[in-house]
Amino acid sequence: MAAARLAGGPGVVASLLAALACGGTSSSGTSPSPSPTCTASSNTTTITISNNAVCPQNITVSRGAQVTFVNNDTRNHDMESDPHPEHTDCPEINQAGFIAPGQSRQTGNLVTARRCGFHDHQNFENTALRGSITIQ
Questions:
Q1: Higher pLDDT residue, 39 or 82?
Q2: 39 with 33: CB under 8 angstroms?
Q3: Domain 46-135: what homologous superfamily?
Q4: CB-CB contact of 61 with 110 (8 Å)
Q5: Distances (CA, A) of 63 to 31, 33, 81, 92, 113
Q6: Is 90 exceeded by the pLDDT of residue 88?
Q7: Which is nearest to 73 in space by CA: 96, 50, 56?
Q8: 20 alpha-carbon distance from chain centroid
Q9: Within the chain, where are the H helices?
Q10: Are 118 and 82 in contact (CB under 8 A)?
């Protein structure tokens, strides 16, 4: 009895099995996020910076509230109001400003009902370090 032999040996078989394991089913169209899952409370006034991202990216607060930025990352961040580089939309956010690793800083009192965008001035092109605060 002659044994069937694949050209290329075990390496080809392993490659074929790996390809079959990756294909063959369709996905829902969502891809995994490169950063850890954000598990922030829905009524938070705290935005945490870690792994070069903010969490949550968007929050809603009551008029008069202050938002605390907590830097749990390994590098400095400079959280400022949009637009870059003027930082003029919501100057209260600029009070948070420069935040060293392990440090936390607060915005001023957010008293006007509106949506305020923010970003890291030192890394403004990183969309994971952008977000918004809606004041209502």
A1: 82
A2: no
A3: Cupredoxins -  blue copper proteins (2.60.40.420)
A4: yes
A5: 36, 32, 17, 12, 6
A6: no
A7: 50
A8: 33
A9: 10-22
A10: yes
